[in-house]
């Protein structure tokens, strides 16, 4: 129905309007088809996402597991070399919240493969050994151009029996030389325990007049 006073459109005008409406309809239909195709692709991706995530987790666990296997061997060697006992360092690995979590354990093979508490194992000496080992391993993995090959060990032998300190220091010195690391070791143990491994020994001595003074022993 035309407004009052409006002229009747010609047949050509009607055809032009129809052509415009057909063009708009075809464009809207094509846009709708593109949106549906994109939505289908998103749905396909979401359907694959859980499987892809699981596959990536398995791959990362397997790849990192190879590194952990070597870490276990090295730490087990350190514990056995220093303590002279049949203990094995093991790791429990699991993925939580898309992150690989690792828990270290000590297995005492001499007591039916009993799992020991690392913090209290051998009076804390096991914890000291693992702490030093993990620091050396972590430092060796850093990019040399952005980090100095230098490590400070502050009383890392505090729970080690004096008779075992030379073994600890010998192993640490060998690893440091192999990795090209420089170590600064601070200890309250007698100086003679470090005589065979340390390249330089400095002793801090109390002085009533001048306070503590530093003396080179070796």
TrEMBL record:
InterPro entries tied to this protein: P-loop_NTPase
Top-level taxon of the source organism: Bacteria
Record's protein name: ATPase involved in DNA repair-like protein
Species this chain originates from: Pseudodesulfovibrio alkaliphilus
């Amino acid at each position: 129905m035309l407004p009052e006073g409006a002229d009747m459109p010609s047949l050509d005008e009607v055809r032009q309007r129809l052509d415009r409406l057909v063009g708009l309809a075809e464009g809207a239909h094509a846009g709708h088809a593109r949106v549906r195709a994109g939505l289908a692709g998103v749905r396909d991706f979401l359907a694959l996402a859980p499987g892809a995530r699981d596959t990536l987790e398995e791959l990362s666990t397997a790849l990192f597991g190879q590194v952990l296997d070597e870490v276990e061997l090295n730490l087990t060697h350190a514990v056995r070399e220093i303590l002279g006992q049949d203990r094995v360092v093991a790791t429990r690995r699991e993925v939580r919240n898309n992150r690989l979590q690792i828990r270290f354990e000590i297995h005492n093979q001499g007591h039916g493969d009993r799992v020991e508490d690392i913090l209290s194992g051998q009076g804390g000496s096991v914890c000291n050994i693992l702490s030093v080992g993990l620091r050396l391993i972590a430092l060796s993995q850093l990019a040399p151009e952005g980090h100095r090959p230098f490590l400070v060990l502050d009383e890392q032998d505090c729970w080690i029996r004096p008779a075992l300190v030379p073994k600890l220091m010998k192993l640490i010195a060998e690893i440091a030389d192999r990795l090209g690391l420089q170590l600064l070791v601070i200890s309250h143990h007698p100086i003679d325990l470090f005589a065979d491994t340390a390249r330089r020994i400095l002793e801090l001595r109390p002085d009533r007049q001048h306070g503590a003074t530093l003396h080179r022993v070796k």
